[in-house]
Amino acid sequence: MATEHILSLLIAERQKLNKAIEALGGASAPKPVTTSKAVVAPAPAKTRKRKPLTAAQKKAHSERMRAFWAARRKKQAKG
Questions:
Q1: For residues 23 and 51, what is the distance between their CA atoms, to the nearest angstrom?
Q2: Domain boundaries in the chain?
Q3: pLDDT reported for residue 44
Q4: Taking 90 as the threshold, does the pLDDT of residue 13 lie above it?
Q5: What angle do CA 68, 69, 73 make, to 5 degrees?
Q6: Vertex 45, ends 35 and 58: CA angle to 5°?
Q7: d(Cα 62, Cα 54) in Å, to the nearest integer?
Q8: 73 by DSSP, 3-state: which?
Q9: DSSP state letters, 7-55
Q10: Are 32 and 18 in contact (CB under 8 A)?
């Protein structure tokens, strides 16, 4: 399907929903939003940068994880 066709289908669906909202809500229903031909792309998500680990931090983390997995294996063997 062409992008323009999909866009026209979505706009038609939105108009139907706006009419239904007006019928149910009466005067308190929000006014329909006018559309433009330009489609605005969402801003890219910001990625968090992490500081690199030092050799000592890597070693400490490795030892913690080794102990974690050993405890987990021991727990699974019991139960």
A1: 56
A2: 3-37+53-78
A3: 82
A4: yes
A5: 125
A6: 170
A7: 12
A8: helix
A9: HHHHHHHHHHHHHHHHHHHGGGSPPPPP--SPPPPPPPPPPPP-PPPPH
A10: yes
Residue 53 φ/ψ, nearest 5 degrees:
-80, 145
Q: What is the pLDDT of residues 28-78, one digit of tens each?
A: 655 666 666 666 677 888 888 889 999 999 999 999 999 999 999 999 998
Candidates 35, 43, 30, 32; CA nearest to 7 is 35
Structure confidence at residue 22 (pLDDT): 86
CA dihedral 38, 42, 43, 49 (to 10 degrees): -160
